[in-house]
Amino acid sequence: MPHAKILLPAQCRAARGLINWSQGDLADRAGVSRSTVKDFETERHALHHSTERLLIDAIEAGGVSLIFADEAGPGVRFRRPV
Q: Which of 7, 17, 71, 78 lies 20 to 30 angstroms, CA to CA, from 26?
C-alpha cells in the first residue's frame, strides 16, 4: 500500500534550505501568504490539502524531491538534473 504524501514542517524547512529560499520566496512561488508558510513550519497550524499541494508543487519545481514517509523516513534531496 503506498504511503500518503504528507508534507511535514521539517521537510518544508529542509527543502527551502537546499535551494536557499526564504519563507517569502516559497510563499511567492506557491501563491500563498508568507504567514501561511511560517505558521505551518512552526507548527502553529496544519495546511489545507490544496495549500499543501501548492507548496509541494513549488518545492518540486525548485529542484527538490520530497521523500515521503517510508521505511527510511521522510526527507528531501536535490533532483537529478534532466
A: 71
Q: In 10 A of CB 45, how many CB atoms?
A: 10
Fold (CATH) for 9-78: 434 Repressor (Amino-terminal Domain) (1.10.260)
The counts of H helices and E strands in the chain are 4, 2
| Average pLDDT, rounded, for the chain | 90
Q: How far apart are CA 23 and CA 72, in angstroms?
A: 27
Amino acid at 30: A
What is the 8-class DSSP label of residue 53? H
State pTM to two decimals: 0.87
In 3D space, the residue among 36, 26, 17, 20 whose CA is nearest the CA of residue 58 turns out to be: 26
